[in-house]
Amino acid sequence: MFENLTDRLESAFKQIKGEGRITELNIAATVKDIRRALVDADVNYKIAKEFTDKVKDKALGNKVLTAVSPGQLMVKIVKDELAELMGGSESDFNAKGNPAVILIAGLQGSGKTTFSAKLANFLKTRSRLSPMLVAADIYRPAAIDQLKVLGEQIQVDVYSEPENKNAVQIATNAIREARSKNKNVVIIDTAGRLAIDEAMMTEVANVKSAVNPQEILFVVDSMTGQDAVNTAKAFNDRLNFTGVVLTKLDGDTRGGAALSIKYTVQKPIKFVSSGEKLDTLDVFYPERMAQRILG
Ligand code: GDP
Description:
The protein is an alpha/beta fold and 295 residues long. The chain has helices at residues 3-17, 24-40, 45-61, 70-85, 112-125, 141-154, 167-180, 198-211, 225-239, 256-265, 286-294, and strands at 100-106, 131-136, 157-159, 185-190, 215-221, 243-247, 269-273, 281-283. It has an eight-stranded mixed β-sheet, with helices on both faces. Residues 106, 108-114, 192, 247-248, 250-251, 273-276 line the site of guanosine-5'-diphosphate. Its EC number is 3.6.5.4. Keywords: Cytoplasm, GTP-binding, Hydrolase, Nucleotide-binding, Ribonucleoprotein, RNA-binding, Signal recognition particle. Belongs to the GTP-binding SRP family. SRP54 subfamily.
């Protein structure tokens, strides 16, 4: 992932790394290359421009520093700004409650169901919680079966009502069931559509009002670039979600989604998911991701 962006940034730094001094001229040239690299990685032009303006200001402000080489200085500034763009420091994830309710939303195919199972496994193994998964996709019977198969693999109970076509009822019944079984986290996997759809949004919003979740996680396929950002905006306008989950980071992603989502919706990326194995969920650390992008 991000190989292309990493390569492009590396070549953007090449010239300045060979210079003995940091000057307005070599800053300007480097910054221009960085901006192009970001735009080609599917970062919105406005975000890329604002980003490189900040980098430029910081570099100019540090011109007199002689302790570090111009190359090192630019790399450090870009790394710090990349981390800042992606949210600065890591954000909290709240899984406390009786039970804690976590609502999972996103388009069909984004990786919601896979992520729901990964999160259940993560909370069970790392946080020693007792989770329950809820299949609240009332349109696709296959989605219920898929969650059941995943639940079996990680040995987490999956609640479903295959005959019930009311997602709000399913969710509220599930929470009652969780209480009676002493489960302390309920993860609700909602129905998605291939594109933003009013009926889907209304349904998820209704489930939200009924169950009052601690966390509403918006799941998005990182390979969809600018579309990921637009989808995030639409879901956030409607659901006011608490965090973003970026999936498929193992795929051929250019990085645009990871770099633009926080800026656009002002909500943190909380988890990143790469691969289909259920034990591969990672908490998102902006600084580590910035380091990875810089190679
Ligand atoms: P949902 O429709 O949003 O519930 O999405 P699914 O969880 O069913 O995922 C859609 C497809 O993407 C499935 O084939 C998953 O196996 C696959 N998938 C999910 N997460 C990842 C991931 O992080 N990496 C890769 N490579 N594939 C994933």
